[in-house]
Amino acid sequence: MSATDVVARPTGTPAGRPARSHQRGPGIAQKLLPLVPAVVLLLLFFAGPVIWSLYTAFTNEALSGVGAGATRFIGLGNFRRMFSDPAFLSSVVRTVVFVIGSAVIGQNCLGLLIAMLLRGRSRAVQSAVSLVVVGAWVMPEIVAAFCWYAYLNRTGSLNSWLGHIGFHQDWLYTAPMFGVILANVWRGTAFSMMVYSAALSDISPDVEEAASIDGASGWKRLWLVTLPMIRRSIMTNLMLITLQTLAVFTTIYVLTGGGPGTKSQTTPIYMYEQAFKFYNLGYGTAMALILLIVGALFSLVYLRFLNVDEK
After folding, report:
1. pTM of the prediction?
2. 3-state secondary structure string, the chain?
3. Does residue 81 fall inside a structural domain?
4. Which of 5, 34, 72, 273 could form a disulfide with 277 if both were Cys (CB 3.0 to 4.6 A apart)?
């Protein structure tokens, strides 16, 4: 080997092996750069309204009057007024009745029933029933509400049919809560049906067959085998439909407007009236904050049950 060959070879590099590149990969800033547009949009359309709502709930802001010209911080004034307002407390009770009747009992139980009845049926039957049920769900809420208004109105379709047997009832006047609960159950059941259909499809037929061989009747298999195996789906479904039902506004507003009087006035309806009909933005926003907290409490309860099941 000549001296020239020794000098030409890079120090510390084995013969026949190229020298390694010391270029660094993309830095942290370069990796996070593509996320900047998404973060900006979240701050603008999510964090921004939330922060503004939190601030407004502690002010006397209004669309007219003193609060419009000289908005000032009033601390817990809106909340003290709220919890001493009989109309607000009554709206909370009606909201709880609406959520329990529409979501917990109506959508949840009816969705489970339909999913179980479709289990094992032919594909044609499953497709036909799913098309009808899901069709109500994908329909715009305001269209569904007007359909039910035309159905339950004093001169609507239901009374036209019942008139042939001499029965007539002004459903939206004498039983407004029943009307809005029925309409919301009809529209929202599809979600529960799809959740439970997916959960039931994961249960092995061998498990229920073994329970049947052991002498368990249909109700016992449902209570002791089927429901415990899909309990996580039940809790998840209850949490989601409860949060959806808490915020229902359009259906109730179109059907009854919260009336007659205040018989179907839930908290979202009362909140809307205070904020945009009587122009008390601060007071209405404080109610929205309380509604958000109620939804969070419902979620914590359901998540607590999920954690208990895991243990």
Report:
1. 0.82
2. CCHHHHHHCCCCCCCCCCCCCCCCCCCHHHHHHHHHHHHHHHHHHHHHHHHHHHHHCCECCCCCCHHHHCCCECCCHHHHHHHCCHHHHHHHHHHHHHHHHHHHHHHHHHHHHHHHHHCCCCHHHHHHHHHHHHHHHHCCHHHHHHHHHHHHCCCCHHHHHHHHHCCCCCHHHHCHHHHHHHHHHHHHHHHHHHHHHHHHHCCCHHHHHHHHHCCCCHHHHHHHHHHHHCHHHHHHHHHHHHHHHHCCCHHHHHHCCCCCCCCCCCHHHHHHHHHHHCCCHHHHHHHHHHHHHHHHHHHHHHHHHHHHHHC
3. no
4. 273
